[in-house]
Design a protein that fits this description.
With 385 residues, the protein is α/β, with parallel strands linked by helices. It is 23% helix and 23% strand. The chain has two domains: 305 residues, Alpha-Beta Barrel (TIM Barrel), CATH 3.20.20; 49 residues, no CATH class. The strands form six sheets. Strands 17-16-15-14-13-12-10-9-22 form a nine-stranded mixed sheet. It has a three-stranded antiparallel sheet with strand order 2-7-6, with no helix packed on it. The protein has a three-stranded antiparallel sheet with strand order 3-4-5, with no helix packed on it. Helix 2 crosses helix 3. The relative contact order is 0.16.
Length: 385
């Protein structure tokens, strides 16, 4: 099967008349909230259950209580606004079993509903400056831009799309109508009702499983583990959304053998052996600059534990490791997709997405050819400043 590549698409600029379903400042009424007897309203999007007086914002910063003069309900303040658009290799999300070799149009907004001390995208997710949201694009324009750039999918990423769920859901519906698939890169910290609406429109998701202890989640992310595990089981058992997992291994925090044993056994028993798991290397950043980078040996040890516990597809990331990036047949061991960083060097699946040597079907979502894709991130502009 031939590996196809196309040149980078030219920069895009939205038509000045392109409508965005929001006010000029990016705000629009939000879903998933209810009024409280004491006059506050409670946001029902995620397990933080932020309770707000008029004018206050939730911890995520982008969901706010409307002023009393505007009805006093909840607003999403970043609808139609983005911190920037890029074309990425799909493997950078990371997704190794979803349209390998293809390009994905990626964007995020600002804010986050977790408080990870180790955040690797803190300049976006922890941003409190709305003037960072330079680009504007309607859901329809996003779908059109994906087609124009040769992107097979659109990814809601860089910060957690759960907090701009209304915008992501509308964009996913437009993408589906245009034959473009959608990807959510998320921590999965979301309540049951919005979770159904959110993942119903997604074709794939990579969920950050931050660790596997309540103590780690509470101390290092300010959140709880149980809602994330509920989300993972919901995606696998109640949707058609393809799921892959990522765990950033932080030296001395979540990389112990006991925690890795417990996590990978839980995945095998509750999600299934075919759910791919990516172990990625931490680098010192944000509020954990005193912690050293993750040694490559730690990633290899974690990968071996996961494979020994029955997972079929376990990968390493943020390091140069061809073995840890290769997709192999779990039936006969044949190397089916060989990767060098985010570039595919060999693709041996047959037209059915199966191993040509033994016929074992590879779990995932595959096209009838590889690509076209890009080898690295390419910024694009969808709208004038």
């Amino acid at each position: 099967m031939k590996l196809l590549r196309t040149p980078a698409a030219p920069p895009l600029r939205a038509d000045a008349a392109d409508p965005v379903d929001a006010q000029a400042d990016g705000s629009r009424p939000a879903q998933w909230w209810h009024a409280l007897p004491d006059g506050r309203v409670q946001c029902d999007l995620c397990p933080r259950d932020c309770k707000l007086h008029p004018g206050q914002r939730g911890l995520c910063f982008v969901r706010a209580r409307a002023p009393a003069g505007q009805g006093g309900g909840m607003l999403l303040t970043t609808y139609g606004r983005s911190s920037g658009f890029c074309i990425d290799p799909i493997e950078k999300k990371p997704l190794n079993h979803f349209l390998p070799g293809s390009s994905v149009l990626s964007f995020g907004t600002a804010g986050c509903n977790l408080a990870c001390k180790f955040c690797q995208n803190w300049d976006i997710s922890k941003s409190r400056e709305m003037d960072r949201l330079m680009d504007r694009a309607s859901p329809g324009r996003i779908a059109e831009a994906a087609l124009a750039t040769g992107s097979a999918s659109v990814a809601f990423t860089y910060n957690d799309p759960v907090i701009f769920a209304e915008y992501a859901i509308d964009a996913a519906e437009e993408c589906r109508a245009h034959g473009v698939r959608t990807v959510a890169v998320t921590a999965g910290y979301i309540h049951a009702e919005p979770r159904r609406a959110f993942f119903r429109g997604m074709d794939a998701a990579n969920v950050d499983l931050k660790g596997f202890s309540e103590d780690f989640y509470f101390r290092h992310t300010g959140a709880h583990l149980a809602p994330v595990l509920d989300t993972l089981q919901f995606i696998v058992h109640e949707t058609d959304c393809w799921l892959e997992l990522t765990t950033l291994l932080i030296p001395g925090a979540n990389d112990g053998d006991a925690e890795l044993q417990a996590m990978t056994r839980w995945i095998a028993e509750n999600l299934g052996a075919d759910v791919p798991l990516h172990f990625t290397a931490f680098h010192p950043d944000y509020r954990m600059t005193e912690v050293p980078p993750t040694p490559a040996a730690t990633l290899r040890r974690a990968r071996r534990i996961a494979l020994d516990n029955g997972l079929h597809h376990v990968y390493t990331g943020n390091v140069h490791d061809t073995e840890g990036g290769t997709t192999s047949c779990h039936g006969c061991g044949q190397a089916l997709i060989v990767r060098d960083w985010h570039t595919i060097r060999r693709y041996a699946l047959d037209a059915r997405g199966a191993c040509p040597q033994c016929g074992t079907q590879l779990a995932g979502r595959f096209a009838d050819r590889v690509g076209p894709g890009v080898p690295r991130r390419i910024p694009v502009r969808l709208a004038a400043l």
